[in-house]
Design goal:
The chain is of the alpha/beta class. About 50% of the residues lie in helices and about 20% in strands. The chain is elongated and about 90 Å long. The two termini are about 35 Å apart.
């Protein structure tokens, strides 16, 4: 098998691997149904919400098994500093867990740019290796 075919196969495997890793990390958030704030308040007022996890303005929650449609996960964005939301949740006996908002822009940027930077570095490595392979060997004297 010649070197060009081996290099093409290696590049194909690397690109497919990076694509699969990218999809793995992009879909790790779960399969929560995205609902609007009005629907969320209606479910809370009806007593259908069992527990919520609040991170900043993002709320992830679970409905009760006895709720219409059974138990399922949902996600909603709530307005910040709106006390009625918390009052309604407490009044209807919803279990509330608050997580700190992890807004670290440098880490977020590095994670999102990591696959691209990895591909650029890999490309530079292979270009240098190819250039070294194509340089004529100096004759020994």
């Amino acid at each position: 098998m010649n070197a060009t075919i081996k290099t093409a196969i290696l590049w194909f495997v690397v690109v497919v691997g990076v694509f699969l890793l990218w999809n793995l990390f992009q879909t790790s958030k779960g399969t929560a149904e995205l609902i609007n704030y009005t629907t969320f308040l209606e479910k809370v007022d009806a007593g259908a919400v069992e527990r919520v996890f609040i991170r900043g303005s993002e709320v992830r929650g679970t409905t009760k098994p006895t709720a219409p449609g059974g138990r399922y996960d949902f996600q909603v964005t709530i307005p910040p500093n709106y006390p009625y939301t918390f009052d309604a949740l407490r009044t209807h006996g919803v279990s509330i867990e608050i997580e700190p908002a992890n807004d670290k822009p440098l880490i977020t940027a590095l994670i999102s740019w990591a696959p691209i930077l990895f591909l650029i570095g890999l490309w530079m490595y292979f270009m240098r290796a190819l250039r070294r392979r194509q340089e004529p060997a100096e004759p020994k004297q």
